[in-house]
Amino acid sequence: MLTTEQWIERAKNLRPKADLFIDGKFVSAVSGKRFDTLAPRDGSVITTVARGDGADVDAAARSAAKAFESGVWSKTDPRHRQAILTKFSDLILANREELALLESIETGHPIGDAMNVDVPSAARSFRWYAEALDKIYDEVAPAPRTALTLITREPLGVIGAVVPWNYPLIISAWKLAPALAAGNSVVLKPAENTNLASLRLAELAFEAGLPAGVLNVVTGLGAEAGQALGRHPLVDKITFTGSPAVGRMFQTYAGETNGKQVALELGGKSPHIVFEDVADIDACAEAVAWGIFYNAGQTCHGGSRLLVHESVHDRLIEATIKVAKQLKMGDTLDPSTQISAIVSERQLERVLGYLDIAKNEKVDFALGGNRVTPAEGLEKGYFVEPTILTNVDNAGRIGQEEIFGPVLAVTKFKNTAEAIELANASEYGLAASVWTQDLTRAHKVVREVRAGTVWVNTFDVADIIVPFGGFKNSGFGRDRSLHALDSYTALKTTWINLGSDEPK
Ligand code: NAD
């Protein structure tokens, strides 16, 4: 691993490509407009990015549709797609330092996490779907012997992938990998403030052999490029991850245009439910602290609520504070940093606003609560220290709303029924965890909690092998696993008349 000084030097010399990637090449926006992209660690301008709008989305969608119809990717032998996606995965790993730096400098993820989690995880997604794609068989339905009935899967066509800023590489890969593996063409619209790694990703896909037009990236503002993609008549499906408010806009865009499919993965307010018989308070405290402070709390399934039995409350809070105090907060480009910056000034203001609300709600600040400067030279950076709020009313704004920052809301409960009621008293249903040694109770609580993922005696174990998505206001789309591959295909029925059952 490079040193902090070496990473800073590399960041200074970065000359990232920041135009639109359409039809296999980088092009300026038709309007010629650009916008700044900033480094959360110090608020400095990294570069300017092309501000694509309706005209550029139209060019990208046409290119994607043309590539799809030509069959240059969609009709190829699965083993051809497998070979190219495997090479793409290898290229991601071969360019790990560059991709990690682009991701880290724009999102504020610690460089160590970008190197060890974001880039390898994105590479693994492409490899996993590449490996899967020639192992999936279609079906023959049990029709009478006078017919042969086939149920086959076909790619949908053009997929519009719209992603948020918190894990650009990982979330894009969760969508692109199955969509491409199934033979679709894609137009990716990254979030306004995190474009650079996605643009490089598309270039690497092209280098791996993905034909021009099969993967396009249109950078730009949500209300412009995002909306144009949502409304485009050549787009067959939108796969969206982001806020509930914008997710619903995509349903409206689809309803008002071509009725395209829309899959939504939205926010969360995921609870840990810790019972009095938790086996290991220290292990639980580790999971609770990492579950909310990793990536400075900007994780959709982050464990932002801690529901804890009153008898273990004080011990668990003490242990969690101990872990939180040991986490190293620092410069994004310092390889030893564990917690770094919030993505943008706007998000920083949002988090600080919630800390003011917390004061009004009269919760207790057991830890933190302030904006900080973790290292010299980063005074303009967007850093908030790990914060633990106790005596939170689950029905108040701190207990209900998604803060998306390093802020843990703690509420006590007295019994299992109350714990389940509190866990479900949320508009969200993305994830939860249950901490108990009682197997029967664990199973019962898992059944009762309305969430897309429930962990037992652990938290945030994420893997491409299992689906990820939510219930209720957390959306209904599912990324990851073979189910995601299915979601980028449509079923076709073929009914072949064989005439009489008599042998000829
Ligand atoms: P956001 O909804 O503001 O933006 C998401 C994407 O939508 C971006 O690409 C943005 O440019 C685009 N967009 C914004 N306004 C638009 C509009 N009017 N029309 C069309 N497109 C528009 O969300 P965000 O602030 O980038 O991300 C944070 C949110 O994402 C949080 O609520 C978080 O919980 C959620 N999230 C969910 C998951 C999940 O898997 N469920 C994962 C990560 C983040």
From TrEMBL:
One GO molecular-function entry: oxidoreductase activity, acting on the aldehyde or oxo group of donors, NAD or NADP as acceptor
The Aldehyde dehydrogenase domain, residue ranges: 27-493
Q: Name the source's superkingdom.
A: Bacteria
On whether Oxidoreductase is a keyword of this UniProt record, the answer is yes
The record's annotation in SUPFAM superfamilies points to: ALDH-like (SSF53720)
Active site per database record: E265
Instruction: Determine if Oxidoreductase is one of this entry's keywords.
Output: yes
Q: Which family does it belong to?
A: Belongs to the aldehyde dehydrogenase family.
Q: Which keywords accompany this UniProt record?
A: Oxidoreductase
What is the recorded name of this protein? Answer: Aldehyde dehydrogenase PuuC
Species name: Candidatus Rhodoluna planktonica
